[in-house]
Amino acid sequence: MTSTLRRAGGFAAVGTLALAAPELGRAAAAPFAIVAFLAAFVVDEGPVFDLFARPQDRRDGRLNGLAGFALAATGLALLSTVPRRSMPIDLFVAAVLVVAYGTVGARVVERVDTATNPGRTTAGFALVAFLAALAGQLAVGWTLGTLPALPAAVFLAAAGALVAALLRSILYERDDPLVMLSVGLLLWLFDAIGVDAALTEVGAALVGTVALGYLSYRTGTASVPGMVTGVLLALLTLVFGGVGWFAILIAFFGIGGLSAKYRYDEKRSRGVAEDNEGARGSGNVLGNAAVALVAVIGFAASGSMPMEGELFRFAFTGSLAAAMSDTLSSEIGVLFDNPRLITTLRRVDPGTDGGITWQGYIIGIVGAAVVSGVAVGVFAFGSPRLAAIAVVGGGVTGMTVDSVLGATLEGGRVGNQTVNFLGTLAGAVASAALAALLL
Q1: CA within 20 to 30 Å of 409's CA: 92, 97, 143, 268, which one?
Q2: Transmembrane residues, as ranges (predicted)?
Q3: Residue 415 pLDDT > 90, yes or no?
């Protein structure tokens, strides 16, 4: 049986074919298309098959994993050569190398760390993927005679590595084609928005967010996928928004994470504690912050959109105010007795979806006020008081919508993360609408 490290090295060698793209031009997809054909229809035994075959490939007698990997690279290569507004070649190369070499990094860590710590494995994947993506962009630029701007190259390499590490932490290795395509398309989007920050700012953002992510993982407030998700969100917020946007995001994650740990043993004894010792996973993080991420990206792209950038600022703060309100009202409100269902006001057991206490509701309003206070402090609003009202209004609206949806829809096919997303979306819309009316 081939070792996983040797197999990863074989995939990395195939991925390295992407570096020939500048020379091949419109034929950049050809090497990967040939590899996909050979893997799917020709190679079914021998040393090459043994090198690339995963356990499922051996059962099927076909190199499905290699074929899928090569087909994904073929698709990205076509996107970088065929359309009139094509993906930049350096981003195609970066997306392929992120997946190909990131896996090598993970396998090296697994070989050295016999305890197989998932945090270290993910860190190994992300670090090697980042270095490979950065080197790939620089190599393409050198070949074409137009080196990319270093701040943008560093940011895109880091973003690609984090996206791939996140997807790989929640998917399987056989899903590499999906990971590669997702990384390529997102890098294309980020590149189209543009990176205006200087290299020192991008570097500081990367170091700071990674340090905070590691701290959240070590303190148990985030799982490995939750840590990677938080780092990615924080990096995008810093680069596309700025320090003020980042301060609001960190206020939510910091206070929200601590509230999950607050009197955790008592919550567990009451049967209302979060799973995994209160550590937040990727679904929880995205459910609470996905709307905020879309808002900050929308703000960065607002120069080429028929929408006022200020509304994205209120959508961002309103969504996080709603997330903060819901988190605090849930995590602290469950410690009080006699909750009532928000839709009927009948008494329910603690922890029931849609159940609220008046103490929890008050604490939720305070949470929205905290986000509002940070927002007013970091943003130069023309009318701070009215802006604060808009943010608090969005937060309370989102918290209320979350509770109503919890009482009426949550359970079965509609999970907590979906309800959180819809609640934060309601907070964003309400805050932006109030800002448009009041300001």
Answers
A1: 268
A2: 30-53, 65-83, 89-109, 121-144, 150-171, 178-195, 229-255, 285-302, 356-379, 386-407, 419-438
A3: no
Contacts of 337-346 with C-beta under 8 Å, sequence gap 24+, read 341/407, 342/400, 342/403, 342/404, 342/406, 342/407, 343/404, 343/407, 343/408
Rounded CA-CA distance 246/233 in Å is 9
Q: How far apart are CA 401 and CA 158, in angstroms?
A: 36
- Complete DSSP assignment for 120-135: HHHHHHHHHHHHHHHH
Query: What proportion of the chain, given as a percentage, has pLDDT over 90?
Result: 51
State the first-to-last Cα distance of the chain, in angstroms, to the nearest integer.
67
In angstroms, the CA 305 to CA 160 distance is 25
Res 276: pLDDT? 56
Q: Which two structure tokens, joined as six digits, stand for 205?
A: 């953002």
Rounded CA separation 155/174 (Å): 27
Strand-pair category, 355-356 with 340-341: antiparallel
**Are the C-beta atoms of residues 49 and 63 closer than 8 Å to each other?**
yes
What are the tokens at 52?
Answer: 């690339």
Q: Which pLDDT band holds residue 261 (cuts at 50, 70, 90)?
A: confident
Integer Cα distance of 323 and 291 in angstroms: 10
Q: Is 263 strand, coil or helix?
A: coil
* Closest among 155, 192, 207, 182 to 95, alpha carbons compared: 182
Q: For the CA atoms of 198, 199, 204, 207, what is the dihedral angle to 10 degrees?
A: 150
pLDDT of residue 1: 45
Contact 94, 59 (CB under 8 A): no
Average pLDDT, the chain: 88
Distances (CA, A) of 36 to 40, 52, 96, 196, 433: 6, 12, 14, 39, 51
pTM score > 0.85 for this model? Answer: yes
User: Can you give the pLDDT at residue 368?
Assistant: 94
DSSP letters for 60-100:
HTS-HHHHHHHHHHHHHHHHTTSSSSPPPHHHHHHHHHHHH
pLDDT at 52: 93
Tokens of 151: 């701040």
Which conformational region is residue 145 in: left (phi greater than 0), alpha (psi within -120 to 50 degrees), or beta?
A: left
pLDDT at 83: 83
Cα dihedral 350→351→354→355 (10° resolution): 20
Q: Is the pLDDT of residue 116 over 80?
A: no
Distance (Å) of CA 234 to CA 19, 218, 228: 31, 18, 10
